[in-house]
UniProtKB/TrEMBL annotation:
<dbReference type="Pfam" id="PF13661">
    <property type="entry name" value="2OG-FeII_Oxy_4"/>
</dbReference>
<feature type="domain" description="Prolyl 3,4-dihydroxylase TPA1/OFD1 N-terminal">
    <location>
        <begin position="165"/>
        <end position="240"/>
    </location>
</feature>
<dbReference type="InterPro" id="IPR039558">
    <property type="entry name" value="TPA1/OFD1_N"/>
</dbReference>
<protein>
    <recommendedName>
        <fullName>Prolyl 3,4-dihydroxylase TPA1/OFD1 N-terminal domain-containing protein</fullName>
    </recommendedName>
</protein>
Amino acid sequence: MQSETPLPRWFTDLLAHRRWVRRTRPFAHVYVRDVFEPRFYARLAAEYEQVRAERPQLFGKVANNYGASGVSLSELRDGPLEVFVSRAWHDLIAGVVGVTDVTGDVEGSVHHHPPDSPRGWPHSDLAPAWFGSRAPAKEAIALPDPAVDLKKGTRAAGVEARELVRAVAVLFYFGNPDWQPGDGGETGLYSAIGGPNPEPAIFVPPLNNSMIVFECTPRSWHAFAGGNTAVRNSVVMWLHQPRELAVRRWGGAGIAEW
């Protein structure tokens, strides 16, 4: 685990300091078991269960034709889950992946898949995201502006916004029953998506307190594998980069417009 930015002690004390493994197949990604130390992980899982029990109205459908419901991390800033929208977490993730042009803008949510959720579709996550006009300070982060449509940038007259593109994706698994092979609910990573029924090259299991992190590229294809025999819960989030830099690197055609 490496980061170019010195991280505060309060934050590093939350981490388990286990090996963060870099993999190249089928595309570059980092896989981590035991991300957080056990006591803090238990607090994350407990907060999620409390939110599910006491504030179920926060959960809404994530997307059409997708089996998960979710709650934005913007709604979860009064407890342990706020760590995912901290500048320390942002800088750690950016440093590990080696992406230097991220802006401090963060978007994400907690996803809940009920048992036997349908399989998702392969996608790269290299997609636009619109944020408010004011960029965050170097030590801060910015969350989506409710006055600006996150995907399309639609907004009232006089409201200014910035068009960014997703740069880094994070999937952190937590609050799940003990997982065994055959239980389903993995994240599939694809080497190619040509043909009518592409199959993942590898499957990432939804083991509690584990995580996958990768740079969003035109070939970072992944999908929820479905077939889960129990619930699957995860934090799904993105760091962002200016659109002009993404176009310069990947070309405009590589960005998946909504």
